Amino acid sequence: MPRVSIRESLKTLDWLRHSWHDVEIDRGEDLFDPGLDYPGGCASAAEIGRVSGKFISPDSGLPLNYNGAGLSTNSGEMFPIENGSPVLLPEAARQFSKLCIEGLSIGSIRSAFDQYLYLCAVKNAVGNPNTPLDDPWYRRHLLRSRALVATAHGLVLDIGCDNPELSRRLFPSTCEYLGIEPSFSTSEHFRVVGMAEFLPFAEGTFDCVCFLTSLDHVLDYQTAIGEAARVLRPGGSLYLATLIWTERAELYRDTIHFHHFRDYEIQGALKGFSVYRIRRYGWKGERHRFGVYLEAIKC
């Protein structure tokens, strides 16, 4: 029986969405080996010529035309390419990124979106959101993510891709990998600069979309999940890895993340999806939180 048909038949088993605490915790401590690839090779990196026909304006939603130096709509919107990466941020975000955060005052924050961007800038200014590769818990996360996305295929969007050259090696050769990040980088590896809440892609573009511990860095996570659903084809897979907190979830102690998710927050955000499989992992031997790695299918 084809894999998608099996998934459709398993929608009736969506009780997992409501029973995460009944899933046994895997306390394995194996580490990801950066030198070890899939036997058949890892995912290929998408190139701009391959995906440019799927780009849309994050402001108007109009299709973007690629001319080699930048992207534009027929109505005159213009988006640059910097260091080989399309910068497809909303206009307000592009303008805000040019400002010096130290020079901003409360009076200069004029809109809710300004507030959002300011909060993001504060988070980015205080600490490094990316854990170094030599951290054992990060390497455990990479190994667990690799096990999660081993079933991925087709065109994959990795939201919050960090280092795209490392991240694409988590995916099998059945995939074509595209990463997106909201921050600028001097990396020579191709990725899109964009926001999870304003994905600059046409509806139904991707076979798989991933949030591999990136959703807690997104303030408007409900909108981000909705955008992931929009750019996924029907029957496509959403891969989500995140920490779930059972207690001691105080955000004032955290300089990096916007959320310490409770299980019901993620469950509620996944309306429109059917949870297909889920694993729970221990995290640093702690009792007040655990890792959830799940695949959900767009209904």
Describe the secondary-structure layout.
Layout lengths: L2 H7 L15 E2 L17 E2 L2 H4 L13 E2 L3 E3 L5 E5 L2 E2 L4 H7 L14 H15 L9 H13 L5 E6 L4 H4 L7 E7 L10 E2 L12 E7 L8 H11 E14 L17 H7 L3 E9 L7 E10 L1
CATH superfamily: Vaccinia Virus protein VP39
Mean pLDDT: 88
- Strand tally, please? 13
Low-confidence stretches: 1-17
Number of helices: 8
* CATH level-two architecture: 3-Layer(aba) Sandwich
Shape: globular
**Helix/strand/pairing class, anyone?**
alpha/beta
Major sheet characteristics: 9 strands, mixed
Q: Per CATH, what is the topology? A: Rossmann fold
CATH class: Alpha Beta
Number of domains: 1
Q: Gyration radius, to the nearest Å?
A: 19 Å
The helix fraction, in percent, is 10-25%
Quote the distance from N terminus to C terminus.
19 Å
Proportion of residues in extended strands: 15-25%
